[in-house]
Amino acid sequence: MRFRAKIVDLACLNHFSRIVNTIAKLAKTCILRLTVCKLYFILSDKVANGGASMWCELSQGNFFDEFQMEGAAAEHNEIYLELVPENLSRALKTAQNAKAVKIKLTNKHCPCLRVAVELPSLSISSRIVTHDIPVGVIPRRMWNDFREPSVPDFDVSIYLPVLKTMKSVVERMKNLSNFIVIEANLNGEMNLKIETDLVSVTTHFKDLGNPPWASEDGCPSSAQGRDLESMTEACIDIKKLLQLLAGQQVNPTKALCMIFMMGQSDFTDDTKLGRMAIGPDGHAIIQHKLDRLKKWADKNLGKFRKEKFKALYLVRNNSIHHYMLRLTQLESNLSEKDLGVLMDAKLDMSK
Amino acid sequence: MPFSAPPAASGERYALSASLDNARHLSSLLRAVHFQDHATCLATASGLRVTVEDAKCIQANAFIQAEIFQEFSVQEESVMFRISLSVLLDCLTIFGTSSLPGTSTALRMCYRGYGYPLMLFLEEGGVVTVCKINTQEPDELLDFDFCSTKVVNKIILQSEGLREAFAELDMTSEVLQITMSPDKPYFRLSTFGNAGSAHLDYPRDSDLMEAFHCSQTQTNRYKISLLKPSTKALALSCKVSIRTDAQGFLSLQYMIRNEDGQICFVEYYCCPDENITEAEL
Fold first, then answer.
1. What is the pLDDT of residues B22-51, one digit of tens each?
2. Which parts of the chain are coiled coil (chain A) (predicted)?
3. pLDDT per residue over A100-123, tens digit each?
């Protein structure tokens, strides 16, 4: 099992650091999955209800000048490591003006990710700062726990408002209630609501815009013919939402929110077989739905030429009916499991 | 732009309805009296008064005159209710507390009457927030019976002179002792903490002293924990008037100029901890 990689370009390094910083704010520990072409940061939430999970996919070619990995066996050419992203974030903090950063998997006394930062110095020889970040190697039998999530049909997708405003509002709402309801419709309207015995607060965002979806897959067919004004809602833990909003350091050009309703059919139009087949753990989701999503992403987000990665952050609600909210932000790629936060990076770089 | 009043059901008028272009004019003043969770609001034709009390010894009032509002109408002679000040402040500052220049949150406040919640409509940058806060039966408020005829000693100071003193009060002292006298030391603040006693004297001819009317030497002690919250009001104000009456009750009145240059008042009343009115230096 080998892994070595090197980043030389300062802009790539800064961008990578910002992504890692964002991940560090979202998860205490996570899985780093390495394949030949990509890196993934995965937080797989084992909690059945009310938890959050995250999946971040980065194309290595967009960040690293050198990237070589070799899994334990040829037919399973992947490495899964468990690590504390805060450690990686701290190591990268020292690399703000680095000439180069090398990352290598080592096993001196215990498995570690060695981050060697080459800093500029006045003398001929450079200064090297080395960080050894302990990692746990995940055995192959457990890899299934971290596979790519399949994405159900969403009921509504909408662009998020200015994140700063949303964050201020959610921060205040956190003082008033533990849960927040996010509802959105296909008319570009989104509401954030909290309600307790003492107070109820609703913030209305208008003219947000709904992203157009590929129609050939029938993906939005549940949306066609639906009343544009009717709202789809999700009730989620406010702290998790604030964690996402407060922690993000990559400034998205656009952020998308998608709400999935599972196990419930309050729509009068045909319930799709796929949706009925959805079980609480999502295993029954048909794989082609995920492919459809990928096709959509490639088609609609492809226009962001320099798209480097995607991110998805999922928050489940606490009730039996799994409401899921998916936020999409352009810039960081978090797993699209529940709260779909899809971020697409837009970098202006020659790479 | 202020909101137009949402019509009340069945054509009733609201008991209290007010509009404010910049919600900060209200929220910053309310923060200056926010040392307890609950407050009693009294609305009359002259404006809004928000009262907070603690330990039956201290009372703070924030006054926002009707003129500060773009629209202010009270149907009955007065409207009074108790409300959670923490929740009210969270709602008023829903779009955040840091203010970008040129942006402000517009506010509309409506109250149908006894038993109804207080409705707030806030707007900033096209985003609208609607809040509904439940109200409660108003408490009976303390009456310090502090009128100008009973005032024994009175000083008006520029706030900048007192700000540092109040911010650095020795909190290990249980009391803050205030001495006011026609003779030296004129105006003295004293604390008696773990490290020792500290005295801060202000001479009557100091530049900071705007008015000095002391007829009698009075030394009074007040629980420092009760007075410490007044530092918030002091920080916002440009001038403060300090008055005591024959029983040693203290009245602190803060003149606060808001962002638009309008004047508002906050006052704190406090009972003395021990009463030492005889000449004692």
1. 998 899 999 999 999 999 999 999 999 999
2. none
3. 999 999 988 899 999 999 988 888
B21 at A interface, C-beta within 8 A: no
Q: Which of A120-124, A242-246, B146-150, B246-250 has the lowest mean pLDDT?
A: B146-150
C-alpha span between A39 and A308 (Å, rounded): 12
Backbone angles phi, psi at B49, to 5 degrees: -125, 125
Please report the pLDDT score of residue A104 as a whole number: 93
Is the CB of residue B14 less than 8 Å from the CB of residue B111? yes
Reported residue count of chain B is: 281
Q: At what angle are helices A163-176 and A238-247 packed, to 10 degrees?
A: 150
One-letter amino acid identity for A153?
D
**Of the candidates A168, A198, A202, which has its C-beta nearest B95's C-beta?**
A168
Instruction: Please judge whether A198 and B128 are an interchain contact, meaning their C-beta atoms are less than 8 angstroms apart.
Output: no
Among A169, A197, A198, whose Cβ lies nearest the Cβ of B129? Answer: A169
Q: Which residues of chain A have pLDDT under 70?
A: 45-51, 150-152, 213-226, 249-254, 260-351
Q: Scanning every residue of chain B, which has its alpha carbon at the shortest distance from the alpha carbon of A191? A: B129
Reported ipTM exceeds the 0.90 cut: no
Report the gap between the CA of B119 and the closest CA in chain A (Å): 10
Q: What is the pLDDT of residues B161-216, one digit of tens each?
A: 889 888 888 889 989 999 999 988 889 999 999 989 999 999 888 888 999 999 89
| Interface test with chain B among A201, A204, A245, by most B beta carbons within 10 Å | A201
Q: Report the amino acid identity of residue A71.
A: G
The answer to whether A334 and A313 have CB atoms below 8 angstroms apart is: yes
Residue in chain A lying closest to B90 (CA): A172
Could you tell me where the DSSP H helices lie in chain A? 10-26, 85-93, 163-176, 238-247, 273-276, 287-301
Integer angstrom CA distances of residue B65 from A263, B25, B60, B168: 55, 11, 16, 32
Residues of A within an 8 Å Cβ radius of B: 161-162, 164-165, 168-169, 171-173, 175-176, 197-207
Contacts for A116 with CB less than 8 Å, ≥ 6 apart? A101, A102, A103, A104, A128, A129, A130, A131
Q: Which two tokens stand for residue B114?
A: 């006894």
Test B91 with A201 for CB contact under 8 angstroms. yes
3-state class (DSSP) for residue B230 = helix
Residue A342 contacts residue A297 (beta carbons within 8 Å): yes
> Which chain B residues contact residue A201 at CB under 8 A?
91, 94, 129-132
Query: Is the backbone of residue A139 left (phi > 0), alpha (psi -120 to 50) or beta?
Result: beta
Per residue in A167-192, is it b (16+ CB within 10 Å) or e — as a string?
A: bbbbbbbbebbebbbbbbbbbebbbb
Mean pLDDT, rounded, of chain B: 87
b vs e for A43-67, b when ≥16 Cβ sit within 10 Å of the residue's Cβ? bbbeeeebbbbbbbbbbbebbbeeb
CB B187 within 8 A of CB B180: yes
**H/E segment holding residue A258:** strand A255-261
Query: Do A93 and A85 touch, CB atoms closer than 8 A?
Result: no
Residue A147: the pLDDT is 78
Contacts of B86 in chain A (CB under 8 A): 175
Residue A203: name the closest of B122, B21, B135 by CA: B122
3-class SS of residue B58: strand
Interface of B with A in 235-264 (CB under 8 A): none
